[in-house]
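Re: that chain you flagged

S.,

Sorry for the slow reply, it's been a week of failed gels. I finally had a moment to sit down with the sequence you sent. For the record, here it is as I used it:
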Amino acid sequence: MYNAILMGFLRCGVVEEANKLFACMPEKDQISWTTMNTGLMQNGRDKEALDSCPVHSLICTQNRRDIKTEETVFRKMPNKNIVSWTAMLVDYGQNGYSEEAVREMLVCGLQPDGVTLVGVLSACSRAGFVEKGRHYFASVVDKYRIKPVLDHCTCMIDLYSRAGQLEESKNFILQTPCCPDTIGWSTLLSSCRNC
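Prediction finished late last night. Pasting the structure tokens below so you have them in one place:
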């Protein structure tokens, strides 16, 4: 389903939305990578497509959780951009190493963006790192002046709900201006099925 939506975004020329979706996809297969790279090239983003090719190797190992192999591939990449860093942050976050990756990204002079925050929050949610997720949401918003949008809020609701903190999730929906009622409540209710 993700691949079909991704293809639709790229066919319509909505490359930024495609990039956001691609960064948040829970699993990327060969079709995902081919769709993304072909779509980028069809939209005149040849360099971006070529730059993301080494990331393919990096992400493909993600299913095996082979962090050392990923790190080796990542370190050998000649041009690390925010996309490759976001990919590493997501996987590091799922393995409990997000703080180190964020520090290293900052040392390299790259600032996190809204997509990076979605990736890190999603990783924290899937790994059950509630406090880290809360910390990143607050610090990235405060420190880097990234205005929370619906995707960020949905990640936070998912983070609390997956951890069984339904009251915290409810309070977040009620207190956060970026949470439209239907999306926030749907995310919370969806999580209740798993409780």
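What I noticed first: Confidence is low (pLDDT under 50) at residues 60-64.

Talk soon,
D.
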